[in-house]
Write a structure and sequence with these properties.
The protein is an alpha+beta fold. It has 2 helices and 9 strands. It is elongated.
Amino acid sequence: MEPHKTLFSFFLSLLLLAGLSSCGELSQEQAVQVDEALSDSLTSTTESWDVEMDIIEEKFTKMHLTGSYAATYTTKDSNATRIKGPVNIQLYDTTGQITTWASSNRAVYNADEAIFELYGDVKVRTVTDRHLESEYLKWMQSNNNITTPKFVIIRTPSDSIAGTGFEGTTDLNDYTIHEPTGQFTVD
């Protein structure tokens, strides 16, 4: 081997050794920067089977949910739980009485915004014998409203209304269908 190549290899090895040995210790500031960079990009995941979830507000159970599987994904900017079904939900009033039942094939709960989204074969039934069916439904927990831009069918003891686009309360007593079709009785 030529002397200049040997000398070059020696200095390269020495430089690599010095670089590797200096990487062993991070300053406190560098360690904080590394932790911040990692936390920005990390997602933690929690999985559960045979899921039961309760939402309690002001010492009252507001909702009880069951599902076959759930995975919660938590990042710096979001906290979402994806639930596989069948998903069954019971909503309660402040006296502890069930007011509404809902079911779907799957659901997503966004904990930061307190919003449930139900997907696939969504059915809602109330104690006043009102029924709603759709393929998608969004429940805003803060104001107890449900919405969907999709096709819906609502059946009450006196009406059967279908249409596209829905906004209403979870008890289905007050609602608007944006593009209604069907038969209904007006009192």
